[in-house]
Amino acid sequence: MQGLCFFAPAFNDSKGDFSVSTKVVKFGGSSLADANQFIKVANIIKADPARKYVVPSAPGKRNPKDTKVTDMLYACYDMATRGGDFEGMFSSIKSRYNDIIEGLGLDMSLDDEFETIERGFKARAGRDYAASRGEYLNGKILAKYLGFAFVDAADVIFFANDSKLKLEETCHAVKERLDEVGNAVIPGFYGSMPNDTIKTFSRGGSDITGSIVAAAMGVDLYENWTDVSGFLVCDPRIVPDPVPIKTITYQELRELSYMGAGVLHEDAIFPVRKSCIPINIKNTNKPDDPGTMIVENDGGDSSEYVITGIAGHCGFVTVTIEKDMMNSELGFGRKVLEVFENYGISFEHMPSGIDTMSIVVHKSEYEEKEEQIIRALERSVHPDRIDVDRDVALVAVVGRGMRKQRGTAARIFAALAHAKVNVKMIDQGSSELNIIVGISNEDFETSIKSIYDIFVTERL
After folding, report:
1. I need a labelling partner for 394 at 20 to 30 A (CA). Which of 31, 82, 133, 246 fits?
2. Which residues of 323-362 form beta strands (DSSP E)?
């Protein structure tokens, strides 16, 4: 039954670790950008026998001016399909991998693989095929370096003809194969279509592969290794050096991700959430940092700062409809939302009063259709008045601790008032997990700073 966990590994919140016997570990592109990073990754894996299944990304940037191998593969393939001379660019890609092999002192060659890929480019095997080779080749090298089995993701991860993941069939194939081979490297980012062509994930990339392997094998923990030590309470571009989030629930993660925080995409966590497997976001370059633990439930409401995170977006429009006695008019709300639906616009929030109803939408989607929407609303519900505010930003304050802490909303509004920020809209979910405020775009950063200060800085 989704949402209920009948078994979960024991979590020691005071120490910030789990007692686990089997882990899936996924490493991002920055973690595998060169030979030195490979050595760090291997040391991390060998330090814990529980790290049995490894999901690598393609090599990322070695420095800020460098190019990711995936981007190089896309560009190389595009040049090949245009009939251009792509040999020079392809040689650069080969050099990236050969440098890693040489730096690791491995006795191996990828020449056969490079020849196959080159033929695939000339035969127009597809952009998904081209992009997937980054993970494929990195997986080959990492498996050799670790002494693990290499399992091609195309052999165990399956998409249907409509490009949707066949999760049940995939999990069965993954488990059957990994039970046979033991410790293994499974490249991230791709699988195969029914006609055996390569298909990449549209969003989430290698994160999704790691999540699938974790769910299929029923592991105790999914470690997602990157170049940051977990999630932060808010955007470090707005608040310098914000504190890290130690523990976050899947529900909080979804709220923050929806409001624009740079966290894991929902597709990447669905398989493990359904299986009640926790995720630990860790830093390859600082492996001793505890990182952020993502769990289904934290019964102790142990959020240190009452709030868990702050996130938001600029660029919204609020359309407010006023009409006397609208609350007694059957179907009024449905008619209003139907107008927006007919013009292909989804609403973000819908705060309302006894005689008013506000619809919050993305400005970019609304602007070109404004006149048609206003006319359609007038025809459909005959309002007394329609007001449009085109200068709205939304800030969400999320935290499981808010459920048991009195006065949280009052503290938010006190912080905004002290910062001289005018609140245009207030929306609180019934779960009491988040409070969303609408403010002017120019007050967006000021609002986040003031809320961070009152909940976090004052406690440091």
Report:
1. 246
2. 356-362
